[in-house]
Amino acid sequence: MTAPSLTSTAPATSGQLATFRLDGDLYGIEVEHVQEVLRSQQLTRVPLAPTAVAGLINLRGQVVTAIELRERLGRPPRPEGTDPVVIVVRLHGEAVSMLVDSIADVVDVQAGDFEAPPDTLEGPARELIRGAYKLHGQLLLALDVQKAVSA
Amino acid sequence: MVIAVLRSEGRRFGLVVDRVINTEEIVVKAVGGQMKAIGLYSGATVLGDGTVALILDVQALARRALRAETNERQDSQKAAAHAAAASETERQRMLLAAIGGGRRVAIPLDTVTRLEQVRTESVEKVGNREVVQYRGAILPIVRLDRHLGAYGETDREVLEVIVYADHGRSVAIVVEEILDIVDGEAAVRSDIDDLGLLGSAVLGDKVTELLDVRAAILAADPQFYSGHPTALHSSSTPTGVSDSLLEV
């Protein structure tokens, strides 16, 4: 049940999540934040940037920062020879992109299926995961997209 | 090895690069907050082939690279002259400029906004005043040689200009040549001065005149300080400038 004290950004909400895979796990972000999804793009590296900044991409003439979500979540680097997928999100009018392994479906989630982050979740990911929705047979980890891209 | 020589905030420094590819007219694109936070890039641009190129913030780069050097020197200085550390004023850097007739003038670097070159033919007139168009504004000019009674060359094609700006007003101080930037720490100082000066000091082994910046600015723009009377008040005594320069 939704606690009445929770704000509108509280985790346990129903709605649609755009989901993607990262290091074998399923993650989701609110579908309204997603601007577009692109195949792997040429990255311009940025010296002295935080390690999670993979580089800059050219999005139809607009320069957009790309955040490596594996790095952000403390996961091992993507295996050699596999290209990331770029999810472009728009937050406060600014486009930022996240590199993930592969894109999956848009999923309807119910507040009743929501649980706080599992205790087994440790490290940097704990800050960035709002909680998990129990889907049939697997967990959908709800990513706090705002925190995830503020590397 | 290729070295790109840059000038930032009155100081020249070299940037060791692998290779110079091209010079290009570019459009600066905004970058996200993460990029700005690094403090080394002023933006990015998209090149003709679609790749993204970073644009270095030269001033920030210079400050970052040169600060370490300055700190080292300040540390050794502090150790040597600990007893004499009566003043807490930061050591002031001075821009040395030739004004003609073999005369050298020192100007506190913190009053310098930019160094520019202006073609003599672009100098225009407002009454008896010389002005130049600069960044969408009319910039009054003071020629330091005339202001200080020196005899500079008159047939130069390009004027070396020190731009000073404060509270949204700017003036251009014309010198003959920018010579150097030195620490404003003079072993020998004197109150021997002349019109438009605050005294003299030995800087870089030579007797150097200390410019009364305020008087020079007022010669170019009598209204310069009238917009903010507090500044007028606090610096109305010329010693306000020279004292902080010449602490030894």
From TrEMBL, chain A:
Domain of life: Bacteria
Record-linked InterPro entries: CheW, CheW-like_dom_sf, CheW-lke_dom
One Pfam family, short name: CheW
Record SUPFAM superfamilies: CheW-like (SSF50341)
Domain CheW-like: 14-151
Xref: Gene3D superfamilies: CheA-289, Domain 4 (2.40.50.180), SH3 Domains (2.30.30.40)
Protein name (Swiss-Prot/TrEMBL): Chemotaxis protein CheW
UniProtKB/TrEMBL annotation, chain B:
Organism of origin: Blastococcus brunescens
Superkingdom assignment: Bacteria
Enzyme class of the recorded protein, top EC level: transferase
EC number assigned by the record: 2.7.13.3
Cited InterPro entries: Bact_Chemotaxis_CheA, CheW-like_dom_sf, CheW-lke_dom
Catalytic reaction list: ATP + protein L-histidine = ADP + protein N-phospho-L-histidine
Residue segments, region Disordered: 229-248
Protein name: histidine kinase
Any Pfam family hit: CheW
Alphabetized PANTHER family for the sequence: CHEMOTAXIS PROTEIN CHEA, SENSOR HISTIDINE KINASE CHEA
CheW-like domain segment(s): 1-67, 91-222
Biased composition (Polar residues): 232-242
Primary role: Involved in the transmission of sensory signals from the chemoreceptors to the flagellar motors. CheA is autophosphorylated; it can transfer its phosphate group to either CheB or CheY.
